[in-house]
Specification:
By secondary structure, this protein is of the alpha/beta class. It has six helices and 26 strands. The protein has helices spanning 2-61, 65-78, 84-87, 165-169, 408-414, 455-491, and strands spanning 101-105, 113-120, 146-150, 158-159, 175-179, 184-185, 200-202, 209-210, 224-226, 231-234, 248-250, 255-258, 272-274, 279-282, 296-298, 303-304, 320-322, 344-346, 353-354, 368-370, 375-378, 392-394, 399-403, 418-419, 425-428, 442-443.
């Protein structure tokens, strides 16, 4: 009986253990099954989410991947403000774009979004890092229309470089502005002429050297050309007459030599011409008279000489004529008085002689007249007092004489903007009219040497005094001779 009970107990325990083992295995199977299923579900969901996210990004981005990659490469070359790929993964999307970028959709019928404008250098636009160099791949953005590099290349020397010509020909660039970059050196590449869509080219306030490439003037669409404040040398190419659409031309503050080419007169719609602060020589060409649309002309600080062109009176739209500091040494041309829209006329320090033409008083819109440091003589035209819009008049350091012909209201209106100093022959009849301003002239009658009207009287008085003195001396001599020579003889 005891053995049977033991056997039964052993069997029961074996069955229980076996059942437990099978139950544990079954539970482990279900655990791993559900765990793996969940993992697969999560992985699948994640993959689906990733695909959907990528799909949605491509949908909202709608950018050519090559263009996007080129853009990021440019940003990483120029600016270290931030990690552009992470902070702006979709730069043409409103919520992901940065200040200084503009994008357009539907260019040339394309459904894609393309970068159309980039600004670098001046906050709030992306600033340029110390090691920034000019990125030639900027021209690989096929639909870029405008790009600006202002105060960008300031530490590391760099040059303007271009990719292959084939890329440039397909470029849509209309405006290229590279200004105020002291580390931008080298010459202006002739390849720039391949940018056939270019309308505005500004390469100002850099350290560019060499000649102005003739190829620039093959850009038929060019409207504004600004190469000012560089170290450019050589002549102004005669091909300049080819850019018929040019409205503004600024070559000032360089080291250009030679004459103004006669072909300048072929720029029929030119409004602004600035050639100041160079070493240009010769006379102003007659063809300047063909520039009927000209509003502004600056030729100061050169080596121009000779007469003005006969067609000067054709410039009826001219408002600013600035030509200080040239060795002209001629009489002031009266033709300026026929340019009715003229607002500023600056002809200082150029050796002009003769009188001030009275025709200048017909310039009813004139606000500034600078004739200082010349060799002008004669009187100030009385009619100058009727110039209602003038606020700056400088006639100092000449040889003018006579009474200052301005009333108290004129003197009060100009105040310190009227300079007559350095004309020893000028005088003021009533000093109280000056309203306390020092005009640099004496009071009429107080100083004979500064009053040309009194000088003839003074010279006459001196002659009369001299004659009377001579008569008196002769009389005394006769009396002494008679007393000591003839009187003793008569007494004998």
């Amino acid at each position: 009986m005891s053995q049977t009970t033991s056997t039964t107990t052993t069997t029961t325990m074996f069955f229980f253990c076996s059942f437990s083992v099978h139950l544990l295995l079954l539970l482990l199977f279900f655990f791993f099954f559900f765990t793996f299923s969940s993992f697969l579900s999560i992985s699948s969901a994640s993959a689906i989410h990733h695909v959907e996210k990528t799909h949605n990004f491509q949908q909202t981005s709608n950018m050519d991947p090559r263009e996007l990659e080129t853009l990021f490469n440019i940003m990483e070359t120029i600016s270290s403000d931030q990690n552009w790929r992470i902070s702006h993964p979709n730069p043409c999307k409103t919520e992901s774009s940065w200040i200084g970028i503009e994008c357009k959709t539907g260019i040339n019928g394309s459904p894609l979004t393309h970068v159309s404008r980039l600004d670098f250098g001046v906050p709030p636009n992306p600033t340029c890092k110390i090691t920034a160099k000019f990125p030639s791949n900027i021209f690989q953005l096929p639909f870029l229309e405008s790009v600006f590099f202002i105060q960008c290349f300031t530490q590391t020397l760099t040059t303007i470089s271009f990719p292959q010509i084939q890329i440039l020909i397909s470029s849509s660039l209309q405006q290229l502005s590279i200004r105020s970059n002291p580390s931008l050196i080298g010459s202006i590449p002739s390849q720039i002429s391949s940018l056939k869509s270019l309308q505005i080219l500004t390469l100002s306030q850099n350290k560019l050297r060499g000649k102005i490439p003739e190829e620039i003037f093959k850009l038929d669409s060019l409207v504004h050309l600004d190469l000012s404040y560089n170290l450019l040398s050589g002549i102004i190419p005669f091909q300049i007459g080819n850019v018929k659409n040019l409205v503004g031309l600024d070559l000032s503050y360089n080291s250009l030599t030679g004459i103004i080419p006669d072909t300048i007169g072929e720029l029929g719609i030119l409004q602004k011409l600035d050639l100041s602060s160079n070493s240009l020589t010769g006379a102003i060409p007659e063809s300047i008279g063909n520039l009927h649309s000209l509003v502004f002309i600056a030729l100061s600080n050169n080596k121009f000489h000779g007469n003005f062109p006969h067609g000067l009176t054709n410039l009826q739209n001219l408002q600013y004529f600035i030509m200080d500091d040239n060795p002209m040494f001629i009489s002031l041309p009266s033709d300026f008085g026929l340019l009715q829209k003229l607002q500023e006329l600056r002809l200082a320090n150029s050796g002009y002689s003769g009188t001030i033409p009275s025709t200048y008083s017909k310039l009813s819109n004139l606000s500034t007249l600078s004739l200082q440091n010349n060799r002008l003589t004669g009187r100030i035209p009385v009619s100058f007092g009727s110039l209602l819009h003038i606020y700056h008049l400088n006639l100092s350091r000449n040889f003018l004489d006579g009474v200052v012909p301005f009333n108290s209201s004129f003197l009060k209106r100009l105040g310190r903007n009227l300079d007559l100093t350095g004309n020893s022959g000028l005088c003021l009849m009533n000093p109280s009219e000056a309203n306390g301003f020092n005009l640099g002239v004496s009071v009429c009658g107080k100083n004979n040497k500064s009053n040309s009207m009194i000088e003839p009287w003074m010279k006459k008085s001196e002659a009369q005094i001299g004659f009377k003195t001579s008569v008196l001396l002769i009389s005394i001599s006769i009396i002494l001779v008679f007393k000591y020579l003839f009187l003793p003889i008569l007494q004998l």
